[in-house]
Design goal:
Protein name: DUF2243 domain-containing protein
Distance between the termini: 9 Å
Number of domains: 1
Pfam families: DUF2243
Strand content: under 5%
Order of helices and strands: HHHH
Largest sheet: none
Keywords: Membrane, Transmembrane, Transmembrane helix
Shape: elongated
Helix content: over 70%
Number of strands: 0
Radius of gyration: 18 Å
Length: about 160
């Protein structure tokens, strides 16, 4: 009979891959949707408002560094997933992988929201009158994704017959 710790170690490569992919993809959703499509903010828009061409250029460069980090996180997740695919002892589970993706995306929101929005104040989700509500909503969404992902990880045990 497999112990829970033994089962976890067999799922860890998938969990690690999913969390890194979730972090990277969560960052891409933030950068593409909030920075580029909606143009609600840019990386340093609270510090360097988009009132001059020079400030716009600085923000564009920092948005690029942000996307470069997202790319590194995503490639790391793909590399972890590739390595897991070559192992015979890894237990594959849709619940485990999907839950890990959600946890990674949620962790991205929580960490980025606390550091960039609250501690450093370099930008806010949607600056203006209700910016705190938008920032808190971003954090709550992140925490909800982490929670749902965690619940899916717990159900991953039953999906694989444990």
């Amino acid at each position: 009979m497999e112990t829970n710790g033994g089962l976890f170690s067999k799922r860890l490569p998938i969990i690690s891959a999913g969390i890194f992919l979730g972090l990277g993809l969560g960052g891409f959703v933030d950068g593409i949707l909030l920075h580029q499509i909606l143009q609600w903010h840019h990386m340093l828009s609270n510090v360097r408002p988009l009132t001059t061409d020079a400030n716009l250029d600085v923000n564009m460069v920092w948005d690029g560094w942000f996307h470069a980090l997202d790319w590194v996180l995503t490639v790391t997740g793909v590399a972890f997933l590739w390595r897991a695919g070559g192992r015979d002892d890894v237990v594959w589970s849709s619940q485990t992988f999907g839950g890990s993706l959600l946890m990674g995306a949620g962790l991205f929101n929580v960490v980025e929201g606390i550091i960039d929005h609250q501690i450093l104040g370099i930008h806010h989700v949607k600056p203006g009158v209700h910016q705190l509500a938008w920032d808190l909503g971003f954090l709550i969404l992140g925490a909800l994704l982490v929670f749902i992902g965690w619940m899916m990880l717990q159900r991953g045990d039953s999906e694989i017959g444990q």
